[in-house]
From TrEMBL:
<dbReference type="InterPro" id="IPR033644">
    <property type="entry name" value="Ferrochelatase_C"/>
</dbReference>
<dbReference type="GO" id="GO:0004325">
    <property type="term" value="F:ferrochelatase activity"/>
</dbReference>
<dbReference type="GO" id="GO:0006783">
    <property type="term" value="P:heme biosynthetic process"/>
</dbReference>
<comment type="function">
    <text>Catalyzes the ferrous insertion into protoporphyrin IX.</text>
</comment>
<keyword id="KW-0732">Signal</keyword>
<protein>
    <recommendedName>
        <fullName>Ferrochelatase</fullName>
        <ecNumber>4.98.1.1</ecNumber>
    </recommendedName>
</protein>
<dbReference type="Pfam" id="PF00762">
    <property type="entry name" value="Ferrochelatase"/>
</dbReference>
<keyword id="KW-0408">Iron</keyword>
<dbReference type="InterPro" id="IPR001015">
    <property type="entry name" value="Ferrochelatase"/>
</dbReference>
<keyword id="KW-0350">Heme biosynthesis</keyword>
<keyword id="KW-0999">Mitochondrion inner membrane</keyword>
<keyword id="KW-0496">Mitochondrion</keyword>
<comment type="pathway">
    <text>Porphyrin-containing compound metabolism; protoheme biosynthesis; protoheme from protoporphyrin-IX: step 1/1.</text>
</comment>
<comment type="similarity">
    <text>Belongs to the ferrochelatase family.</text>
</comment>
<keyword id="KW-0472">Membrane</keyword>
<keyword id="KW-0627">Porphyrin biosynthesis</keyword>
<dbReference type="InterPro" id="IPR033659">
    <property type="entry name" value="Ferrochelatase_N"/>
</dbReference>
C-alpha cells in the first residue's frame, strides 16, 4: 500500500548487501569477438608468462586474438551471432535477487550485480553500481562451481583489486564463496538431469550399457602440476558425487566417465580430450551416450557449438547412434535456490574476511589439502613457469613481427 511504501522510503534499509556474480562474459555480436578475445588473452591468469616477459603480454594477446578471431567468429555465427552468456547471467542475477529478498530479515536488502571478466558488464561497472546503491557489505559468488586460477582466481583478483582501490569500505566488509563444487544442491540437480536422460534412453534397446560422459572445460596441465590449481580435484569430486547420486536414482549398468574439452594452443591440457573419449567409447561398441557439461552453469559457445555441433558429429561419425546432452543449469529453480543458499551460507556460516589474500587462500582450503598462501604459490609459479616455452613464444612473435611469417602458427593459435 501507499503508506507501507512511504514508511519504507522514510526508513531506508540500513544494510544493503551487494552480491557480485562473477563470470567470464562473451561477445554479444560478431564485431565484439576480436576485442573479447584480446581481453581474454591479455589476462596473465590465462596466458602465464614469466615476470621478465610480462612486457610482451599485450602484444602477444593482440596477435593471438587477431589469429583466432576468424575461427571464433565462425563458431559464434553458428550459434546465432553472439554468446547468450550475458543474457543468462543477467536473468540468473534477477531471479537470485528476488529469491534473496523474499524472506530475509527486514533490515536487509540484497542487490545482485553481474561482474564479467572479459566483456560487459565489466567488474568496474558492477562496483560502480554497488557504490551508487550505497551497498555496505558484499558477497562474492563466482558462477564457476570449481575453482581454477584461470576462472575464479582471475575474476577474484580483478574484482578485489578494484574494490580495494575504489571502495575500501566495501572491501573491509566482504566475503567470498570460493567454490561450490560439492554443494549437495548442485550435485542433486545434475543427478536429476542425468537420471531424466537415462530413463529416456533406457527405452532404446541396445546390447551395450549407456555411457554418461562428463565433459569439463580443460586447463593446461601445468596449472595443476606446477601452480597447484585445485581445478582437476574439484571436477573429479563433482563427477564422483553426481555418479553416486545418479546411481541411487537409476540402478543399471551405466558407466560414468570424465573428459576435458576446449583445448587452446600448443601446450599439454588435461586428458582425455572429449573428442578422443567419444571415439574411444564408440569403439567399445556403445551406441547410447549422455554428455554432461559440468564446469559451466549456462549455455554458451562451449555447449551450443563445441558439444552440440562439433562433438556430436565426432560421436555420430564414430558410431554413436543415440546422443543426449544434459542442458546447462540456466534458470532452473533448484539452481537459483542453490545460489541463494550459497549467499546465505557465506553471510551467516562463514566469517567475513577482510583481505584479498585471506579470501583467495580460503578457496584452496575448502577440501582436503591446504595449499598455503596463494601469493606464495604464485611466486613459485613465476619461477617454475617454463622458461623455454616463453622464450620460444617471444622468438616466434619477433619473427612474425619482423619477417611477417606465420611463426605463431607453430603454437596452434
Ligand atoms: C570452467 C570453465 C572454464 C575454464 C577452466 C576456462 C579456461 C580457459 N579458457 C581459455 C580460452 C578460451 N575460453 C573461451 C571461452 C569460454 N571459456 C569458458 C569457460 C572456461 N574457460 C566459457 C564458458 C567460454 C564461453 C564464453 C562465451 O562466449 O559464451 C574462449 C573463446 C571462445 C573460443 O574462441 O573458443 C577462449 C579462447 C583458456 C586459454 C583457458 C585456460 C588457461
Ligand atoms: Fe575458456
Ligand atoms: Fe572453445
Amino acid at each position: 500500500s501507499a503508506s507501507a511504501s512511504a514508511s519504507a522510503s522514510a526508513s531506508p534499509k540500513t544494510n544493503r548487501i551487494a552480491v557480485f556474480l562473477l563470470n567470464l562474459g562473451g561477445p554479444e555480436t560478431l564485431k565484439d569477438v576480436e576485442p573479447f578475445l584480446y581481453n581474454l588473452f591479455a589476462d596473465p591468469d590465462i596466458i602465464r608468462l614469466p615476470a621478465a616477459m610480462s612486457g610482451i603480454q599485450t602484444a602477444l594477446a593482440w596477435l593471438i586474438a587477431k589469429r583466432r578471431a576468424p575461427r571464433s567468429r565462425q563458431a559464434y555465427d553458428s550459434i546465432g551471432g553472439g554468446s547468450p552468456i550475458t543474457r543468462f547471467t543477467t536473468a540468473q542475477a534477477e531471479l537470485l535477487e528476488t529469491a534473496l529478498n523474499e524472506d530475509c530479515d527486514s533490515s536487509l536488502e540484497f542487490k545482485c550485480y553481474v561482474a564479467m571478466r572479459y566483456w560487459h558488464p565489466f567488474t568496474d561497472e558492477a562496483l560502480a553500481k554497488a557504490a551508487e546503491d550505497d551497498c555496505r557489505s558484499a558477497v562474492v559468488l563466482p558462477l564457476y562451481p570449481h575453482f581454477s586460477i584461470s576462472t575464479t582466481g582471475s575474476s577474484l583478483r580483478a574484482l578485489l583489486a578494484e574494490m580495494q582501490a575504489s571502495q575500501p569500505r566495501l572491501m573491509a566488509r566482504h566475503t567470498v564463496v570460493p567454490s561450490w563444487h560439492q554443494a549437495p544442491g548442485y550435485v542433486d540437480i545434475l543427478a536429476r538431469l542425468v537420471a531424466d536422460e537415462l530413463r529416456d534412453l533406457a527405452k532404446v534397446p541396445s546390447e551395450k550399457p549407456i555411457c554418461v560422459l562428463f565433459s569439463a572445460h580443460g586447463v593446461p596441465v601445468s596449472y595443476i602440476e606446477r601452480a597447484g590449481d585445485p581445478y582437476k580435484r574439484h571436477i573429479e569430486a563433482t563427477v564422483r558425487l553426481v555418479a553416486e547420486a545418479t546411481r541411487a536414482r537409476v540402478r543399471d549398468d551405466t558407466t560414468y566417465e570424465l573428459s576435458f574439452q576446449s583445448r587452446v594452443g600448443p601446450v599439454e591440457w588435461l586428458r582425455p580430450y572429449t573428442d578422443d573419449a567419444l571415439v574411444d567409447i564408440a569403439n567399445r561398441g556403445i551406441k547410447r551416450i549422455v554428455v554432461v557439461p559440468i564446469s559451466f552453469v549456462s549455455e554458451h559457445i562451449e555447449t551450443l557449438e563445441e558439444i552440440d555441433i562439433e562433438y556430436r558429429e565426432v560421436a555420430e561419425t564414430a558410431g554413436i547412434q543415440h546422443w543426449r546432452r544434459v542442458p546447462a543449469l540456466n534458470l532452473d529453480a533448484d539452481f537459483i535456490r542453490e545460489l541463494k543458499f550459497q549467499v546465505n551460507d557465506a553471510l551467516y556460516a562463514k566469517p567475513v574476511v577482510s583481505t584479498s589474500e585471506a579470501c583467495v587462500v580460503n578457496s584452496f582450503d575448502l577440501d582436503d589439502r591446504p595449499l598455503g598462501v596463494l601469493t606464495g604459490v604464485e611466486k613459485d609459479v613465476e619461477r617454475l613457469n617454463s622458461k623455454t616455452a616463453a622464450v620460444a613464444i617471444a622468438l616466434a612473435l619477433l619473427i612474425e613481427l619482423l619477417a611477417n611469417t606465420r611463426a605463431i602458427h607453430l603454437f596452434g593459435v
